[in-house]
Amino acid sequence: MIEIYSFGYKDKRFSKFAEMLQREKVDAVIDTRYNPNCFDSFWNIKNLKSSLPLYNIKYFSFLEFGNVNYRNLEEERVIKDMPSGLKKLNDVIKNNDLKKICMICVCACYETCHSKIVIDRIIEDENFIFKGRL
């Protein structure tokens, strides 16, 4: 069984995020942002790729799971390429022997976040369980 957590980093500190990941023994972060080049240096792809391994946590960017309407949150949430993202996720989990993953985005509210659409689809597979928001 693969455990999934979610995390929205808006107004959050990276150090607290890393502590939560370690506490829950998360193996990898799955970045669900359509554009992972954040202006906040702690949350941009370059920093996450270099910083998370220092905590023995792998990082993977999944543009496939991004919301194509991320610039206009009043528009419908549309996932870029769910089928490709699901295949890639299964391959990454298998090739890296992952047991616990955390899906991240900027959104503060999980209920209105595009990652909820992604996680809801992933947990249709009985090999996955959603453990909650960190």
Overview of the molecule:
This protein is an alpha/beta fold and 134 residues long. The chain has one domain (2-133): Rossmann fold. Helix content is 31%, strand content 20%. The longest helix has 15 residues, at 82-96. The model has no long low-confidence stretch (mean pLDDT 93).
Structure characteristics:
134 residues; alpha/beta; Rossmann fold; five-stranded parallel β-sheet; 4 helices; globular
| Tally of separate helices | 4
* CATH structural class: Alpha Beta
Provide mean pLDDT, rounded: 93
Spell out the helices and strands N to C: EHEHEHEHE
- Topology-level CATH name: Rossmann fold
Poorly predicted regions are none
* Total number of domains: 1
Q: Please give the CATH architecture.
A: 3-Layer(aba) Sandwich
Largest sheet: 5 strands, parallel
- Helix/sheet category: alpha/beta
Tell me the number of strands. 5
From the alpha carbons, calculate the radius of gyration and give it in angstroms. 14 Å
Strand content is: 15-25%
Helix content: 25-40%
- Identify the strand order in the major beta sheet: 3-2-4-1-5
Task: Give the overall form.
Answer: globular
Taking the alpha carbons of the first and last residues, their distance comes to 19 Å
